[in-house]
Amino acid sequence: MTTPAIEVTGLAKRYGSVQALDGVDLTVRQGEFFALLGPNGAGKTTLISVLAGLARPDAGTAKVMGFDVVRDYREARRALGVVPQELVFDPFFTVRETLRFQSGYFGLRHNDDWIDEVIERLDLTPKANANMRSLSGGMKRRVLVAQALVHKPPVIILDEPTAGVDVELRQGLWQFVSGLNAAGHTIVLTTHYLEEAETLCARVAMLKQGRVVALDTTANLLAGVAGLRLKLKVSPDRMPPALAERATRQDDGSYLLPLARSAEIADVVVALRANGAEVTDLSILEPDLEEAFVSIMGRR
Amino acid sequence: MTGFRTLLYKELLRFWKVSFQTIAAPILTALLYLLVFSHVLESHVQVYPGVPYTAFLIPGLAMMSLLQNAFANTSSSLIQSKITGNIIFILLPPLSYAEFYWAYIIAAIVRGMAVGAGVFAVTLVTVSVPLPNPFWALAFGLVGGGILGALGLIAGIRADKFDQLAAFQNFIVMPLTFLSGVFYSIHSLPPFWQAVSHLNPIFYMIDGFRYAFFGVSDKPPLLSLAIVSGCFAALSFASLQMIRRGHKLRN
Ligand SMILES: Nc1ncnc2c1ncn2[C@@H]1O[C@H](COP(=O)(O)OP(=O)(O)OP(=O)(O)O)[C@@H](O)[C@H]1O
Ligand SMILES: [Mg+2]
């Protein structure tokens, strides 16, 4: 078996009275596109901080590409690129200086070709010589992404990279990151936009109060929630008995009806008509990660 | 080594980009001290026989500026990085503890030396001060700058807010520098305060530094150099331990 990109065992971390991580076990294989999800305060950033060596674990071990983040910290950090959640920058320097410094800190001297390419790919070329202070929030975010990539790390962790970022950059960013993944980089991503995780990530871990409460492929998680459903309102507000026993009444006066196939919609409408009722509002609900998330987080 | 060199270069560039504040301003401050004190005391005080008070004062002032600016460089750089959060840019890369430490310390020494040399150069216009033993000046400048740089590093890492840093500066660094014999020889003090002054490492820096100029000092320069080097070694050891443990940096 090849070395896992990330291997975390029994990881615990407490801040004062908050148990930010409470025995986390997690393995991410090389080449995966992995999502780390969870509500605010679940411990995602704390987990990333431990992996990056920014926080010391109280118990357990964390390895990046087989290197222990405490004992072999230099190798572990060389293998990892982190895009932090907070929008931080050094106001003394320009974009290019910032990237050159970051590259130098990683021990790389003649790295301008790659720096130029990253600047180009992230659409930062017009701002390359601008002072960091003068950039907009989204631009600063791009520089943070670029900084995480200067040393071409095999493992890249992005902590909410799309918070406060416009649609265009978001799409561009995902295209870029998907390209990196296709080129063999392992990508770990946290986000509160679950549709992003659903489309991009093949596997998902969900954290809640410092524990892993779900760890599975995206497909399995979706299969675990209710399938295709029809949401509809009828007038006059009555259902034929055959449908009524399958449907659940919602607070807003609509009905939710599980479907086996989308073609079943026609049968439903016909049955309602036969019962003297018209459909006034109709929408189809497909299973999504958000539902899986809500149902998993709601448990216990 | 590239990591260390980059961090050192970044630290140098950081103060160089604002050299008006970080070099020119402290030189002006030192000149103001010189003007005021020499005007008031020139005809009343002679510390070493044959040495005018203004000439006596200049090396002390240059050294005091050197020390204060070495402290300011590490402490302000670290507290700013911590407060703005960009400290993570140097915490994420595989920089070793020693690379981290020495990059900050050397940058602090360079800034201190630049200010100290600036004070000396500017005062040279009005008063000529001999420098028969430049080796001693260099040695005390280096070690003194290193000590204050290390103190600044410790203060910058420990402080969570600017006012904590200001307290460290105002209640520890300033009294130690002012009471180190910059403006007087400690022989003019009552015995008790002389004894207290001997516990102040900055006293030895100023005294040894002044030896380079006048060939006279309160203590033999070699003894002073041994004492300040010992202090620097101890502070370096403590700082390296602190960075290794990640105290206040990796919580
Ligand atoms: N430096 C710290 N000091 C004290 N408490 C902390 C610190 N960092 C995190 N915590 C606490 O640890 C818990 C986990 O925080 P963490 O930042 O890991 O959550 P998260 O999953 O990243 O949340 P979000 O989605 O809001 O980013 C929270 O209760 C937080 O308040
Ligand atoms: Mg977070």
Instruction: Give the C-level CATH assignment of the largest domain in chain A.
Output: Alpha Beta
Shape of chain A: elongated
Radius of gyration of chain B: 18 Å
From the alpha carbons, calculate the radius of gyration of chain A and give it in angstroms. 24 Å
Q: Give, in order, the helices and strands of chain A.
A: EEEHEEHEHHHEHEHEEHEHEEHEH
Largest beta-sheet characterization of chain A: 6 strands, mixed
The neighbouring-strand order within the major sheet of chain A is 6-7-8-3-9-10
Distance between the termini of chain A: 36 Å
SS element count, helices of chain A:
11
Bound molecules: adenosine-5'-triphosphate, magnesium ion
Strand content of chain B: under 5%
User: Between the first and last Cα atoms of chain B, what is the distance in angstroms?
Assistant: 26 Å
Helix content of chain B: over 70%
The chain pair forming the largest interface, with residue counts per chain, is: A-B, 35 and 27 residues
What is the correct CATH architecture of the largest domain in chain A? 3-Layer(aba) Sandwich
Kindly report the oligomeric state of this protein: heterodimer
How many domains of chain A? The number is: 2
* Secondary structure tally: strands of chain A: 14
3D shape of chain B? globular
